[in-house]
Amino acid sequence: MRRVARGDRRAFDELYRRTAPWLTVRLRRRCADQDVVAEVLQDTYLAVWRSAASQASASAGGSAVGWLWTIAAHRLVDAFRRRARQERIPAVRTFETVAPAAEEQALAGRIDGELERALLTLSPELRQVLRAMVLDGLTARETALLLGMPEGTVKTRARRARIALREALS
Predict the structure, then answer these.
(1) Which domain does 113 fall in, by range?
(2) pTM, whole model, 2 decimals?
(3) Is residue 92 part of a domain?
């Protein structure tokens, strides 16, 4: 990392050669779209090239691979968010006897400011899980890996968030 931080192109090429296959496999486990994986990989290594100096000075002996994965995970979430904004979400049909889930109402676009206020009542931990699972479309397992917490914790927080939203919106 110190050599990459000094602008050594060969060191960067070596870092890429050693870590790109591993990083690609990890990204493919979280995203089936190969174009998104390629984009995230490119964005990750561009960020590494641009900020290697700060990483090299900040972590004497720290894990470059851990730092690399952190960048890639954040770039993947960003890509999911971009995709969600670009896609039009169809209206959700509901039946009068069945109350729609809060996230279904949000995705159908039927509540705006009310949802925003309800989301602000949630703790940051609950909002983080709900954002990853509902807006980014990640599974509980993917969310757990992305946020670095047990899958059971993710499921519990998602359930608590949904209950709190339902109460806040009723």
Answers:
(1) 102-169
(2) 0.49
(3) no
